[in-house]
Amino acid sequence: MTRILAQSKSASVNPLKSSQPLGAALAFLGIDGAVPLFHGTQGCTSFALVLFVRHFKETIPLQTTAMDEVTTILGGSDNLEEAILNLKTRTKPKLIGVCTTALVETRGEDSAGDIADIKLKRAEELAGTEIVLANTPDFSGALEEGWSKAVTAMIEGITRPGERARQSKKIAILPGWNLTVADIEHLREMVKSFGLHPVILPDLSGSLDGTVPDHWVPTTYGGTSVEDIRELGAAEHCIAICEHMRRPAEVLHKVTGVPYVLFESLTGLKDADQFVSLLSRISGEPVPAGVCRRRAQLQDAFLDGHFHFGGKKIAIAAEPDQLYQYATFFVDMGSEITAAVTTTDMSEILEKVPAESIQIGDLGDLETLAGGADLLVTHSHGRQASHRLGIPLMRVGFPVFDRLGSQHKLSILYQGTRDLVFEVANMFQADRHAPTPEELDPFRKREAPGGPRSSPLARH
């Protein structure tokens, strides 16, 4: 059984995790016409905004209630109301996603009550805009908890409750935060290939896919529509991806009765097979020939690439579900997880990670544990450890700011797993050093028992 080692340091060295508010804001960015609103100081929002812009290389519509010293003492309800009304007047969003920060959570503000009062008093002015609250204190949890809470809040606050007439072929999909834009696009195409209609919540592939609008848009453009969220109860089935999406799926089932299936990962042959089999069963359609061909390509990639993975030592630092995703991939390929570091012990998926122990910690812990590893797997802040240890770095997760195209890399289903095999095998090959003559022949410089002998020419 995997041992979970609690964090023992009083200070974080080269932090690994991103906060809950950032995760919630990321989820709200997957909604069409949305603006995430941080209820806290300007500094909290600035740090998150910098990370988003560096990672996505896009304009991010992130706003703040801008609390100061006075409102921190007297309460920030007036700031919250003013910020919501200003956003409504200036940007006319379809959704305002309020993310609380440690400041208001520590103070103990009743943000839910404040928003209810604002909605009641300003009902006419706020008509046409949904306001959703995600309670996301910085001092608890990490990015994936924030994402999960935001999706749960949208379902609780927007989706129509009660049993509904099911729409044939309509499937609700709740992806985890660690699915990239390319992953979500590929997921949609796979579901559509079975004749099904997917509604993805949230859908970053529609809002952060790197397109340039014809004119300035002060909100998100593209993504899941508010109306789609409202009508989620008409779906025949719900598919949740990653353990942290269990809670939103359970809430959707409780509110609307929509049954759900949860996949802990979609990376690897076994998980992809199970997903494809489920789609075939739901749709009543055979597996398309194109999907079968991609499966065959993955099998061939396994044959070509497994020589490079066997016996390799891997050090991974990531959020719990992403840690599980990559750890199972490497172990299935014949590698060994020698160091595993994650952000929080709040996820049950950690018990299933194929590693002897998992350290709750930071990238300083990763650097300490990763000696002798063949590959580091974490986000861009791991580049210093990679340089100091002389170990190649595979960049995954959030943020990745020193490489282009991270959001357009596939990592799921047959095609994404195949791409992972090639990417990692190529990294191993590029890091391979040619052996020296001494390494090939350890006896080359061996001395005779009687000591070194002079050459015959030296005796003449």
CATH homologous superfamily annotation of the largest domain: Nitrogenase molybdenum iron protein domain
Question: How many DSSP E strands?
Answer: 14
How much is the radius of gyration in Å?
A: 25 Å
**Approximate strand percentage:** 5-15%
CATH topology of the largest domain: Rossmann fold
The number of distinct helices, counting runs of at least 4 residues, comes to: 18
User: What form results from the Cα inertia axes?
Assistant: globular
Q: What's the main sheet like?
A: 6 strands, parallel
Which ranges are low-confidence, i.e. pLDDT below 50, for 5 or more consecutive residues?
Answer: 453-460
Structural class: alpha/beta
What is the annotated CATH architecture of the largest domain? Answer: 3-Layer(aba) Sandwich
Key traits:
18 helices, Rossmann fold, globular, 6-stranded parallel β-sheet, 460 residues, disordered C terminus
Question: Explain this structure to me?
Answer:
The protein contains 18 helices and 14 strands. A 6-stranded parallel β-sheet has the order 1-12-11-10-13-14, sandwiched between helices. Strands 3-2-4-5 form a 4-stranded parallel β-sheet, with helices on both faces. The protein has a 4-stranded parallel β-sheet with strand order 7-6-8-9, with helices on both faces. By secondary structure, the chain is an alpha/beta fold. It has 3 domains: 20-158, 3-Layer(aba) Sandwich (Rossmann fold), CATH 3.40.50.1980; 170-288, Nitrogenase molybdenum iron protein domain (Rossmann fold, 3-Layer(aba) Sandwich); 294-430, Rossmann fold (3-Layer(aba) Sandwich), CATH 3.40.50. The longest helix has 21 residues, at 289-309. Helix 1 crosses helix 7 (143-158) and helix 7 packs parallel to helix 11 (246-256). The chain is globular. Helices cover 42% and strands 14% of the residues. One of its GO terms (molecular function) is oxidoreductase activity. Pathway: Cofactor biosynthesis; Fe-Mo cofactor biosynthesis. Residues 433-460 are annotated as: Disordered. This is Nitrogenase iron-molybdenum cofactor biosynthesis protein NifN.
